[in-house]
Design brief:
alpha/beta, seven-stranded parallel sheet
């Protein structure tokens, strides 16, 4: 598949979330446009705004954020940079984590709190309805039925279009799907971290979007002289680009959302959508884990 070089994200193919949200499979994760520790304002606010605008220019039409990124900063920047939004842009956000401080995350899944999370995300993003609202983490102290149940209520009220989950196993996903329609799962997954393989296979069989977070955690494989670096050199690309290309080739339901706070790095990431891998190369990369 080819795409105009001005919109390289389109080269990674498309996926329809929930049966009606058609997006390019390579999206953008908006966690890194905040300060250190995902806390506070970014060190370069103007560059963060440029990153968001440039992502859309490059054909990215899925932006993933959360109320806990900052907290609140990421959602506010998205609205500042992009509102009024292009009609094709899908903004996904998440709620259910509180932030006691930098790099600290604690789940809170009480229904009144989740309802407040949705309402405040709508206000910050300047939306009447969130296209994709994801439970950021299941709160072990609150029945799962209550947590996804309140999101189902808000979907029925017209404030959420589709519901997703984050960091769940197959059993939790099946339990949630007995209560609401779940259209996406966002789990930790990359070329060296594949513990969510059963969840990915479950999603693939049922047409559920799988959004891998931390998609560029290539670890030692990206080091000079490492196996991934060698394979990348043969393609004339970076190890990070090869890791993203592998994700796109791994499954048709895979929607990688690499994030960055720099335009140059964003352009490098999105260019990964144009990389083609043959079966032998995919097998070689599969073996690296």
């Amino acid at each position: 598949m080819s795409a105009p070089t001005s919109r390289p994200a389109a080269a990674g193919g498309e996926f329809t979330i929930g049966g009606d949200l058609r997006v390019h499979r390579l999206g953008f994760g908006a966690m890194r446009i905040t300060g250190p520790g995902v806390w506070g304002d970014p060190q370069d606010r103007d560059e963060a705004l440029r990153v968001l605008r440039r992502a859309v220019d490059l054909g990215v039409d899925l932006i993933d954020t959360a109320d806990s990124y900052g907290p609140y900063v990421s959602e506010e920047l998205i609205a500042e940079a992009l509102h009024p939004y292009p009609p094709e842009l899908v903004i996904a956000t998440k709620g259910g984590l509180v932030r006691p401080g930098p790099d600290r995350w604690e789940p809170v899944g009480r229904p009144p709190y989740l309802r407040q999370c949705v309402e405040m995300s709508l206000r910050r993003l300047r939306l009447d309805r969130v296209d994709l609202y994801q439970l950021h983490r299941i709160d072990p102290l609150v029945p799962l039925e209550d947590q996804v149940g309140v999101l189902g209520e808000m979907r029925d009220e017209g404030k959420i279009r589709h519901i997703g989950l984050s960091e769940v196993d197959v059993d939790e996903l099946e339990r949630a799907r007995e209560i609401v329609d779940v259209v996406s799962v966002q789990n930790l997954y990359n070329i060296t971290h594949r513990k969510s393989e059963p969840v990915l296979e479950y999603c693939e069989q049922r047409g559920i979007a799988f959004i891998p977070w931390f998609p560029l955690a290539t670890g030692e494989l990206a080091q000079p002289g490492g196996p991934l670096a060698e394979a990348a050199a043969r393609h004339g690309v970076t190890p990070a680009q090869l890791a993203l290309a592998w994700l796109l080739h791994r499954s048709p339901v895979m929607l990688p959302i690499p994030g960055t706070s720099k335009v140059a790095h964003l352009e490098e990431n999105v260019a990964a959508a144009t990389i083609s891998l043959d079966p032998g190369e995919i097998a070689e990369l599969n073996a690296l884990a």
